[in-house]
UniProtKB/TrEMBL annotation:
Domain named Enoyl reductase (ER): residues: 10-320
InterPro entries for the chain: ADH-like_N, ER, GroES-like_sf, NAD(P)-bd_dom_sf
SMART domains, A to Z: PKS_ER
Keywords: NADP, Oxidoreductase
Gene Ontology terms for molecular function: NADPH binding; oxidoreductase activity, acting on NAD(P)H
Coiled-coil segments: none
Name listed for the protein in its UniProt record: Zinc-binding dehydrogenase
CDD domains (UniProt xref): quinone_oxidoreductase_like_1 (cd08243)
Amino acid sequence: MKAAVIYRPGSPEEFILKDRPIPTPAEGQILVRVKAFGLNRSELMTRKGYSPGVQFPRVLGIECVGEVESDPSGQYAKGQKVMALMGGMGRDFDGSYAEYTLLPKHLLRPFQSELPWVVLGAIPEMFQTAYGSLYPALAVQGGETLLIRGGTSSVGMLTTQLASLAGLTVLATTRNPKKESALRTNGAAHVLIDSGTLNEAVRTIYPEGVDKVLELVGTSTLRDSLRCLKPGGTGCMSGMLAESWTIPDFAPMEFIPATVRLTTYDSGQVTSPAAVFQDFIRQVETAQVKLAVSRTFTLDQIVAAHQFMDSNQGAGKIVVLP
């Protein structure tokens, strides 16, 4: 099989396409033929050496969709469509940047769909982060206001649609004024050009602040995002587009406004059952939700795919088809 292997942290050019033996599943493992996978900023951070504990060489990739090739337990028939995400993929063990991947059985979510693989490949991590941020983390309710910081990211674009369908009023941010129309078309009621400070702009629209904030940029803007919340509001940090894990000299009493709540969402810790993914796939099939796929690449174009992710030119998910 072909696999994109990275032997040391660095630039996209560190990826090398190699021929490797197709692995054999042991007890508790399933061999999956990868049909598509999405790229994620966390993989960019791992590629650069920012993910603690990752040993090289490594095949990256924290998500995929595909078909069961071999299941020693017999639970899954060959050809069963499955998706998988997180759980150590591409970090603790080799992930999805390959034609086949060996996965722990508990990571798999079986599904049925005739959607193209390029569409299905955009779903696992993007949907789980959007859904998990909105419901288990933020517990959103219809009629609330939601600020999405990092609105043109793939998760931001999908969260805008899901929140709008649920009856929330969405404020979405972008650093690029040229992307304002894309955000409005996607369902944002208000678009804010992010210069690094949003509190004043938000309170021009909602003087008391907003009910909820989804922070996708990360630690560099989190403090300002929390200041955009009304008393009793909740902020959730689910992304790190700014590529920084920590906040220097974090002082909670100064950092978090009084009565404002701060939580996080991590799809590696809380993942939805298969039925939730299947329901979402039906929403896509019936055109209730339109997935924003920025560009597609093939596995032998993985260097170009990471270069494109580095450039921040896209507005939506990057999908790779092995």
